[in-house]
User: What shape does this take?
Amino acid sequence: MRIQTEPHIAFKVNDIASALKEKEIVMPLYEPFAGYRCAMVQINGTLIELIETSLPEEKIWHDEATLKNGVLYGGQEGKLPPREE
Assistant: This one.
């Protein structure tokens, strides 16, 4: 998946469906786990990940229960990233 291998920026949006309108979509909208939807667009050659969620960062990146049945960026079921101190 392109999102894993290419540098990009990410923005949290309130309404991802509206944010995707008339954009060049390079990764279609999907929901890797409950409460987190994302997609990637390209604008003027820049890759931009759009994220719609009400989950706090701690729940997204460091909560095993959240990730257990989800797939964030494909093929990473149950894998938690290293925790930044």
